[in-house]
Amino acid sequence: MLVTGVARQLGGRLVRRIQRDPEVDRVIGVDAVRPGHRLGGAEFVQADIRQPAIAKVLAEHEVDTVVHMDVTGTPLSSGGGRTTVKETNVIGTMQLLGACQKSPTVRRLVVKSSTSVYGSAPRDPAVFTETTPPKSLPSGGFAKDAVEVEGYVRGFARRRPDVAVCVLRFANILGPSADSPLAEYFSLPVLPTVLGYDPRLQFVHEDDVIDVLRIAAGEPRRGTLNSGTFNVAGEGVLLLSQCSRRLGRPTVPVLLPAVRWVGTALRTVGVTDFSPEQIRLLTHGRVVSTAQMRETLGYEPQYTTAETFADFARSRGPGLLPPDSLARAVDRVAGLPFAPFPGGALAGTTTPSNAE
Amino acid sequence: MADAKVIPFDDDRSRQSAQRTGRRRPVPGRRKAEPGPQPLGTPAAPVSALPGAQEAVEQASGARAADRQEQRGGWDRRIAGGLSFLRRRITGEYDVDEFGYDKELTDQVLMSILRPFYDRYFRVEVKGVENIPAEGGALVVANHSGTLPLDGLMMQVAVHDHHPAGRHLRLLAADLVFMLPVVNELARKAGHTLACSEDAQALLERGEVVGVMPEGFKGIGKPFGERYKLQRFGRGGFVSTALKAGTPIVPCSIVGAEEIYPMIGNSKTLARLLGFPYFPITPTFPWLGPAGLVPLPTKWTIQFGEPIPTDGYPPEAAEDPMLMFNLTDQVREQIQHTLYKLLVQRRSVFF
Question: Where is the composition biased (Basic residues) (chain B) (predicted)?
Answer without folding.
Answer: 21-30
